[in-house]
Amino acid sequence: MAALGVFEVLAPGILTTVTDLGRYGFARYGVAPTGGLDGFSLRIANLLVGNPENAAVLETLAMGLRLKVLSEVSVAVTGGNLTPLLGAQPLPMWRSLTLRPGEVLSFTAPARGFRSYLAVHGGVDVPLVLGSRATNLSSGFGGLEGRPLRKGDLIAGGQRLSAERAVERVFPAAWIPDYPSPWRLRVVWGPQEEQFTDESRQTFVSNLYSVSSDSNRTGIRLNGAALQVKAGVSESIISEGVVAGAIQVPGDGQPIILLGETVSGGYRKIATVISADLPSLGQIMPGDQVGFSAVGLAEALQALRLAEERVRSFALSAPA
Amino acid sequence: MGDRSLLVELGERISPEINRRVEVLMDRLARAELHGVREISPSYRSLMILVDPLKTTLGQLQPAVAELAAADHDGTLCRSAEHLIPVVYGGEHGPDLEWVAAHHGVSGHEIVARHTASTYRVYMIGFTPGFPYLGELPADLDTPRRGTPRTRVPKGSVGLAQRQTGIYPADSPGGWQIIGWTPIELFDPRRQPPSLLNMGDQVRFESIRAEEVDRWRR
């Protein structure tokens, strides 16, 4: 099926990339997942327009993205509320809607959350590289030519709408996340928590940290009460594999939450954000506050099952 | 680590023997295709196994991994490749060579002689796609990282950090001491495998002149 030109990029915003749920199976070659940072919103956006959950979408940060619509297309915008407008009118989020040629879609200011996901019916059409369509910015491959979108880019989409107009779908309002700051992130201790002092472990779960403006896709950098390792413990460790959500602590004691852009790291991890809370990491912005609560594995799994059940039941309610 | 990965530690130090055990276990895990395993990430002395927690639990995975780790090594895994990497040392290609030479109280030529004298093992690929962690450097090349990391190290740069040496496969920030540059393409997502160097491979460096670079480009 020939891909359809769906958007012309009038302005790329701060950072807009083509992404999906990530690239797995290539860590031994140094290739990190680098998928959409809020996987929940990405999946819902796809389901709203009748795509498979893992279809390629646009992920845009904070503000500034402006797109001119080139063909009639069914889209959905989810994730952080970046005050999306269609022309001069507010564009409703968390539902599918049909755009018409000539209309201009813009993301004008971060009102709540930090990253929006724009899915188009049929998926954004870019080549599959190492099993994924996600952009790997560190190495410059995947997505659209391995780079962020630029002014003048043409975004192609998968499928023309059928004659009888796409079915309009709405995600239940009660399940839409509200992205509150201070954030409360649930963590499982470790893997190296026993190398921190007892006071530092206590500090970690009883203080609020503020999100530094030095944060980026590699990590959310936090400022607050410093975490200390026990006497005689060296500053760094032998580099080892890391996962998104791992909270590493460099020598200055200020924690950094890793975000799936790196496969390895040489600092100790005091704790790791649970799977159910990973989508939140994509919506935390500089200036927000973050607090941590430690949970056990059983509670972490239960939280994930609950989140998954919502996605499942919404997917099942969708006409294929 | 967390609720969806298992960190399997096979030793406490950097050593070829421990790293080889990591390599063997990675190979066995890849062949075993255990249900629910999404990613296997090997490093110097450990393996990180990422699972889909809705398909398998860490408790279910642990005994299967322990069994694979305990099995005797039958020596079938002996296919490490050898690579000769051409490097233009010093000058604009190796802006830290003079500093490294001064640090060790020898000439730049002596640093090059030391760097090209040994064969190094690829302990792991990490940091960015295709970045090889090579070791160990001889003790007389043990060099601290730069006090202030560079915001941009050019693609192809060859660097030193303590007893490790490595090559930057793409432009990136970095704190290693840059002593040279190679025209060799280390990472290409269209290649199978995408990384030129792989865990367990053997690497030697060869000093070339800047005029010879075109001959080495692929």
Give an account of the 3D structure.
The complex is a heterodimer of chains A (320) and B (218). By secondary structure, chain A is of the alpha+beta class. Chain A folds into 2 domains: 4-177, no CATH class; 183-310, Cyclophilin (Beta Barrel). Chain A has 4 helices and 20 strands. Chain A has helices at 39-48, 198-206, 278-281, 297-317, and strands at 4-12, 16-19, 57-61, 65-69, 73-81, 84-86, 89-90, 96-99, 104-107, 112-120, 154-157, 183-189, 209-211, 219-223, 240-241, 246-249, 256-258, 264-265, 268-273, 289-294. Chain A has a 7-stranded mixed beta barrel with strand order 12-19-16-17-14-13-20. Chain A is globular. The two termini of chain A are 19 Å apart. Chain B is α+β, with helices and mostly antiparallel strands. Chain B has 2 domains: 5-70, 2-Layer Sandwich (Gyrase A, domain 2), CATH 3.30.1360.40; 82-216, Beta Barrel (Cyclophilin), CATH 2.40.100. Chain B has 5 helices and 12 strands. Chain B has helices at residues 16-32, 58-70, 97-104, 108-117, 213-216; strands spanning 5-9, 37-42, 46-51, 82-89, 120-126, 131-135, 150-153, 157-161, 164-167, 172-174, 177-181, 202-207. A 7-stranded mixed barrel of chain B has the order 4-11-8-9-6-5-12. In chain B, a hairpin with a 3-residue loop joins β2 (37-42) and β3 (46-51). The mean pLDDT of chain B is 93. Chains A and B meet through β15, β19 and α4 of A and β2, β3 and β5 of B.
